[in-house]
Design a protein that fits this description.
There is one protein chain. Strand 12 and strand 13 form a beta hairpin. It contains seven helices and 13 strands. The strands form two sheets. A seven-stranded antiparallel β-sheet has the order 11-4-9-6-7-13-12. The protein has a six-stranded antiparallel β-sheet with strand order 1-8-5-10-3-2. The longest helix is centred in the first third of the chain and has 16 residues. The chain has a single domain, classed as Jelly Rolls (Sandwich). It is of the alpha+beta class and 257 residues long.
């Protein structure tokens, strides 16, 4: 699937509001906002999280809205708000020679009006910036009771995504939905328990950074799990882009990917 095709599908989908499955899982950002609009963009980001936290929207509707929000971001303006050069230095100083990835928490307040209304980011949404070393990966993994979205703000990634079909204690059956070998700045994707639950991102360049947004414990009564790692390279092919992949430990995933 090419990014060009996904962008066309996105535009078609906007005309068919309310159909979650018609929205793209991966597409290009338009970088339409100027720097002075960043506070308003962050307000949209946090309001969408607040609505999911308050159960006013579903996880799929949150993903639909994230497609629109990330589409509208100005990556240069986000760099400026993050103080990206300083953040890069801090992450590179902390990552060490053995680790392939490092996530750093960031707090980005929105507008003054949003502050007055108590819509600070820590109340609903976890925002981070991640660096992945060239040739290393965020290993293939899924989640439970979590929703997240990433935005490429530097470098180029290979991105593979999967729907979770079945799961037991030792393995998971996955159907691949995305195989994008060259996702660059301004591309994004999102995951939930209901769409593209498993993802695998590999850094293709030295300067690979992601901006991530995450909510945990979004559904009462559903068990919460962080990364559930799978060895996709050792998966059994079942046909029709479907695989039976064994679960592996965090240490095994970090060593192999």
């Amino acid at each position: 699937m090419s990014i060009r095709i996904d962008r066309r599908r996105m535009l078609d989908s906007i005309a068919i509001a309310g159909l979650a499955c018609s929205m793209p899982a991966f597409t290009l950002g338009s970088n339409e906002l100027e720097s002075h609009d960043m506070a308003g963009w962050l307000d949209r980001l946090y309001l969408n999280a607040q609505m999911l936290r308050q159960k006013r929207i579903s996880s799929l509707q949150w993903q639909e809205a994230m497609d629109r929000i990330y589409r509208d971001v100005s990556v240069p303006a986000l760099h400026e708000r993050l103080d990206f050069k300083l953040l890069q230095k801090e992450i590179l100083d902390a990552i060490g020679p053995q680790r392939g990835e490092l996530f750093r928490r960031v707090v980005l307040p929105g507008s003054d009006e949003a502050k007055k209304e108590g819509k600070e980011p820590h109340r609903a949404l976890i925002t981070k910036v991640a660096h992945i070393k060239k040739g290393r990966s965020i290993p293939p993994h899924g989640h439970s009771n979590m929703a997240s979205a990433f935005l490429c703000i530097s470098g180029e990634f290979a991105v593979r995504k999967y729907d979770k079909l079945e799961e037991n204690d030792g393995e998971m059956v996955l159907r691949q939905t995305i195989d994008e070998p060259a996702a660059g700045v301004g591309t994004w994707s999102s995951i939930s328990d209901y769409r593209n639950n498993v993802h695998w991102l590999t850094a293709k360049t030295d300067d690979c950074y992601l901006f991530t947004s995450k909510l945990i414990g979004v559904e009462t009564g559903r068990p919460l799990h962080g990364r559930i790692n799978f060895d996709v390279l050792d998966a059994k092919t079942l046909g029709s882009a479907t695989y039976r992949a064994p679960k592996i430990s965090h240490a095994e995933a970090a060593e192999r990917y």
